[in-house]
Design brief:
The complex is a heterodimer of chains A (573) and B (560). Chain A is α/β, with parallel strands linked by helices and 573 residues long. Chain A is 60% helix and 10% strand. Chain A has 19 helices and twelve strands. In chain A, α2 packs antiparallel against α3. The longest helix of chain A is centred in the first third of the chain and has 46 residues, at 118-163. The relative contact order of chain A is 0.09. With 560 residues, chain B is of the alpha/beta class. Chain B has 17 helices and eleven strands. The chains are: A alpha/beta (573), B alpha/beta (560). Chains A and B meet through α2, α3, α4, α6 and α7 of A and α2, α3, α4, α6 and α7 of B.
Chain lengths: 573, 560
């Protein structure tokens, strides 16, 4: 079974606290309301003790109206403050989350900002929206409670000392349990939530794996055999996890015990002193009622720690995504680029592109995707890039497009380092037909016109024809007005690819990077695409990544890559 | 619905009772501690002989110990219960959806939906931890404490009961309503924001290259503003439940205090009991505290439950016959005549009058453009879906006359995207033939040309392949699937585009190995390419109805 590590956000994670500035007023209200509520609680306890003592001593036949009114007023005020805490906490959570989303979009919608697989982006997007639920617990409950856990015990002790110094001393003596407990929260309780969480994650992943594999299992007649396997796996994890929980739940016992034992200790001591005389019933009762309040806020911190830690996992994913500085990527436009649009933007149709010792590494992979590659691409040349899967063909395309920045070496466009060219200007020179283009939700027309929203219908249809997409678009129920993309009509891989090709052709760029343009196509469509490449050659530079020998044979030149290096000469030359 | 969900969870009554009993004991002991301590102090203030307090002193200490112990035991018991019921639940759900796959789970082909379904199932454990247990504990602990208070002063018992019932119902219902309302109001906005984010993040580079990044960012910002507006409005309502909880608890305590004081004043109650009655009553509210949190989760748990029930209530499209053919055919010839298969909500005819014969030991390559129904044809042969018309036979009998398990022992489908389980290479092979020896595994791997690679791995057959086999290349995954198929040793092997995601060289090598080791079994290979360099095989082309006519066998007609 996989080991799932989970660092988790710490209660006062600097990365999170660094992002709460947008919500500082909501947070201030949150904490202020929590503190006021506690002071009112102390008043309520004192008042309650006075009334009870009066009744117990037999002098009081009825609770005086003023005291009743005071009690009711205090209770209603506390209720109002509870509402303020919740409302301001939620406002803070909403604002922080919205700011995080804005930062995420800003970071990702830029070249190389975040190279997310589709599943990765879905997970991140879900976190960015649902994460607010976790933050609500954090801001509305956990954060105020942490403030209370620090301030309330001090207030309780001071107030107790005013009433009865000796009891306050006893309470103070039991207090060192608190730092011990705080450590336990951080370690043992953390281990508890980790163990629990990890087991649940593993079990959930196992179940998902089996459900995903159901068709395969059915094909091999092994579907029903998995039922017992699911139960056994859960049982195995239950046993090991319960073993961990038996130890880590002890931290809860420690604090529970501290609360009850100090109550008992204070009560017994007070009882003995009352029998001996020299202490009034009223102060004794007040102190007794104060003892549980010493520990209550700390206990709540422990409970809320788990609730908010689970919820904060979503926020952590976003903070991680924001922190990630992707290697081999174009840096932020504002800092990484010295280019600011000065000077003419190189035009690949008339100027050569030269790669000198270009090396690209991807994080987590030992081998370089490109390894000291030297390559000249002449103006208006049709270059085929061939080689086995993983040879670096797609990475070469990305480097030319400016999507990936070399870790070493330099790309010269018309003699200027590409890193010095304003990326916003360079992107207008290039077009890309990826192997798996992403459809945006919208009509076929909108998808093709993504890079040229002002294109007219004739131009769009022309691009579609040249991409061999027109025939299938016509057969769609609404033709060019059919809604595709997420939530729209599903298209096959080949159909999506042809829409992506049409999108690139419409851009009329002077450098065209085509990634396996015929891989998903039937022979008729593949021929049409090959013809289009013929039509376009000589008027612009075309880099054609392909496995298709026929297509590669049409190129002016074929560059063969192997493990990120050139292994020319080869078939096409 | 709740009853059915509880049934799915398979909760053992004894374990449940133990959890509830311990939880109630912890709360009662906590209330008793403050009550006894209050009584002790009031009694002590009368300065009786210290020895007369001995019993009280002991009782205070005992309840101080019972409470943490009971709480600890309760937490262990409830977590154990939740784990057990989750295992039971998963097994039950799986048993129900197993006969649905794959045709009945078509809607879940999208990985996202499948993950959500699994998450829905997981969420149902909240029925135990957040719903059943807290409610039962609140009822038991509340009843015990109310009884105790009522024995001392009936009117206080009545006030406490009323207060507890209010606290157990009003704030949770408000919380649930507010949660449900904001879910409703926010659901569409959240969904739109999520979808736009997914699209923008997933297509970030393409958007940027096409200069469409600013437009996408503006759309998201507008979505975000709309959601934040609604969420800020919803925040006000959300605090109401908390406020009500504080108010009800406090006012009930005041009410009991008034009643007890008045009773003591009239001589109807020992004045010493005013303190314990009031303190015990306050302690009782601990029982209802978790209910608001439960209520907040209730709407999402219930909608997860609804989705799960809806799924497991589906009737399988493909079922076994009442009286299946017992004798399996000796010759495994497959014959399709004029077969029609419609799919999807619009009942589009994916296969429309298909004829095809696969004789014993024959090798047939079926090719055709994407969307021509190749996968449908392959699935039909193993009854992963039903035909609407026409005749389909295996040997002398209709495909539908066999048990599905029997049919699939004879005809094995190698899927286009074979699932590789997050386990070892060994386990990914042995489920094809349980109890297979290492020698058999190695032979199958060798035939799929994975032998030297597996031998070179430090852990060999016990190497883990990662989630969905992500440590393997696409070619290795297909070869592993091929080894699996060789190991299962069916009479008829149906392969659905094993070369779909491979580059040309890898695909050609894979198909060559397939033919070399196919032996005497019949093979039907479905492919979008030309099928590779095969000899001795018949070629059939699936054509779409729009440009029908050039088919090699002219025996398959389809609608695009």
């Amino acid at each position: 079974m996989p080991t799932t590590s989970r660092r988790g956000l710490r209660p006062f994670d600097r990365r999170l606290l660094g992002r709460v500035a947008v919500a500082r007023w909501a947070l201030a209200a949150d904490v202020a309301a929590g503190l006021t509520g506690t002071l009112l609680l102390l008043a309520q306890v004192t008042l309650l003790a006075a009334v009870i003592a009066g009744a117990a001593e037999g002098g009081l036949r009825q609770v005086p109206a003023t005291q009743v009114a005071a009690l009711v007023a205090i209770i209603l005020a506390r209720a109002g403050l509870a509402q303020v805490v919740e409302v301001s906490g939620r406002r803070a959570a909403t604002k922080v989350m919205s700011a995080l989303r804005a930062a995420l979009v800003e970071r990702c919608l830029r070249p190389g900002g975040a190279q997310l697989r589709h599943t990765g982006s879905a997970e991140l997007a879900t976190s960015a929206v649902q994460g607010v639920d976790g933050l609500e617990t954090y801001f509305a409950r956990y954060l105020p409670q942490v403030v209370l856990a620090v301030t309330v015990p001090v207030a309780v002790l001071l107030w107790s000392a005013v009433i009865d110094l000796q009891s306050a001393v006893i309470m103070l003596v039991t207090l060192p349990v608190i730092p011990v407990f705080m450590v336990l929260i951080g370690k043992s309780a953390g281990a508890r939530s980790r163990a629990n969480w990890q087991a649940l994650v593993v079990l959930s992943a196992h179940f998902l794996d089996v459900v995903r594999g159901l068709p395969t299992l059915r094909a091999f007649n092994r579907g029903s055999a998995q039922i017992s396997s699911i139960q056994e796996t859960t049982d195995r994890y239950r046993r090991t996890t319960m073993g961990t929980l038996r130890v880590s739940f002890l931290s809860g016992v420690v604090l529970d015990l501290a609360t009850t034992l100090s109550t008992a200790l204070v009560a017994v001591t007070l009882g003995v002193r009352l029998v001996a005389g020299g202490l009034g019933l009223r102060p004794a009762l007040t102190v007794l009622l104060l003892v549980p309040e010493l520990y209550a806020p700390i206990r709540m911190v422990g409970t809320l720690f788990h609730a908010s830690a689970d919820g904060l996992a979503a926020v952590e994913r976003i903070l991680d995504a924001l922190d990630r500085t992707p290697a081999g990527a174009v840096g932020p436009v504002t800092v990484g680029m010295t280019g600011n649009g000065h000077g003419a933007v190189p035009d690949p149709a008339t100027e050569p592109i030269r790669l000198r010792s270009v090396t690209v590494r991807y994080p987590g992979r030992a081998a370089s995707a490109l390894d000291g590659l030297d390559l000249d691409i002449h103006p208006a040349e049709l270059v085929a890039v061939v080689g086995a899967t993983g040879a670096g063909k797609t990475t070469l395309g990305r480097v030319l497009l400016g999507l990936t920045r070399p870790d070493e070496g330099v790309v010269l466009a018309g003699g200027r380092p590409l890193a010095d060219v304003d990326p916003e200007a360079w992107r207008n020179r290039v077009a890309w037909a990826p192997q798996h283009p992403t459809l945006i939700p919208g009509t076929v027309t909108e998808n093709i016109a993504l890079g040229r929203p002002d294109a007219d219908a004739a131009a769009i249809e022309d691009a579609a024809r040249r991409a061999a997409a027109h025939p299938f678009i016509q057969r769609l129920p609404e033709g060019y007005d059919t809604v595709v993309g997420a939530g729209g009509r599903g298209l096959s891989a080949g159909q999506r690819q042809r829409l992506g090709l049409a999108r690139a052709l419409l851009r009329d760029a002077s450098l065209l990077v085509l990634d396996e343009p015929t891989v998903h196509l039937d022979p008729v469509a593949a021929r049409r695409v090959a013809d289009t490449v013929e039509e376009l050659r000589a008027s612009r530079t075309i880099v054609l990544v392909t496995h298709d020998r026929d297509l590669a044979a049409r190129a002016d030149r074929a560059v063969r890559l192997d493990a990120g290096r050139r292994v020319d000469p080869c078939c096409g030359d | 619905m709740l009853r059915r969900l509880i049934g799915l969870l398979g909760i053992g009554p004894a374990r449940f009772a133990a959890s509830v009993g311990l939880g109630a004991l912890a709360i009662t002991a906590g209330a008793a501690l403050t009550g006894l301590a209050g009584y002790l102090i009031c009694r002590a203030a009368q300065q009786p002989p210290i020895l007369s307090l001995t019993v009280l002193l002991v009782a205070v200490r005992v309840s101080a110990l019972v409470r943490p112990a009971a709480r600890y035991a309760e937490r262990l018991a409830s977590h154990d219960l939740a784990f057990r019921s989750l295992g039971h639940l998963r097994a039950r759900v799986f048993a129900r959806i197993e006969p649905l796959a794959p045709a009945g789970l078509e809607a879940y082909r999208d990985g996202e939906l499948l993950s959500r379904m699994v998450a829905d199932v997981d969420q149902l454990q909240d029925v135990v931890l957040r719903l059943l247990l807290p409610v039962a504990v609140a009822v038991v602990a509340g009843a015990v404490i109310v009884t105790g208070v009522a024995l001392a002063l009936p009117v206080a018992g009545v006030v406490l009961a009323a207060g507890l019932v209010c606290a157990a119902t009003v704030p949770p219902l408000v919380a649930a309503r507010v949660a449900a309302r904001s879910r409703r109001r926010q659901a569409a906005l959240r969904a739109r924001l999520t979808a736009d984010l997914v699209d923008a993040l997933g297509a970030a580079e393409e958007l940027w290259l096409n200069g469409a990044d600013a437009r996408a960012a503006a759309t998201i910002a507008a979505d975000d503003r709309a959601l934040v507006d609604v969420a800020l409005r919803d925040a006000h309502a959300a605090g109401a439940a908390d406020a009500l909880g504080v108010a009800i608890t406090g006012l009930t305590a005041v009410g009991i205090l008034l009643a007890a004081t008045a009773a003591a004043g009239k001589g109807a109650l020992d004045p010493l009991l005013v303190a314990p009655i009031t303190l015990v009553a306050i302690g009782a509210f601990e029982a209802v505290l978790p209910l608001s949190v439960s209520a907040r989760h209730l709407p999402s748990v219930l909608s997860a439950g609804r989705r799960v029930l809806e799924l497991i209530d589906r009737e399988p499209q493909v079922t076994d016959p009442d009286e299946p053919v017992e004798a399996l055919p000796r010759r495994s010839e497959i014959a399709l005549r004029d077969v029609v298969v419609s799919r999807g909500s619009d009942h589009r005819r994916v296969l429309d009058g298909v004829d095809l014969t696969l004789r014993q030991g024959e090798r047939v390559v079926v090719s055709g453009p994407s969307g021509a129904g190749k996968t449908t044809l392959a699935h039909l042969l193993v009854r992963f879906l039903e035909r609407q018309a026409g005749d389909a036979r295996l040997g002398p009998h209709d495909l539908r006359a066999y048990r599905q398990d029997d049919l699939r022992t004879i005809v094995l489908l190698g899927a286009q995207e074979p699932h590789v389980f997050n386990s070892t290479i060994r386990e990914n092979l042995t489920f094809a033939r349980p109890g297979a020896s290492d020698a058999e595994l190695r032979k199958a791997l060798t035939h799929a040309r994975l032998g030297p690679w597996v031998a070179s791995l430090p852990a060999g057959l016990d190497t883990r392949v990662g989630e969905r086999g992500r440590t393997l290349s696409g070619g290795q995954r297909q070869r592993l699937a091929l080894a699996r198929a060789f190991l299962a040793d069916p009479s008829v092997l149906v392969l659905d585009e094993p070369d779909a995601h491979l580059d040309a060289e890898t695909a050609a090598a894979l198909l060559a190995d397939l033919w070399r080791h196919a032996g005497g079994r019949s093979v039907l290979l479905v492919t979008h390419g030309n099928g590779g360099p095969f000899e001795r095989c018949r070629r059939v082309e699936l054509v779409t109805s729009s440009h029908r006519g050039d088919a090699a066998d002219r025996d398959i007609r389809l609608h695009a």
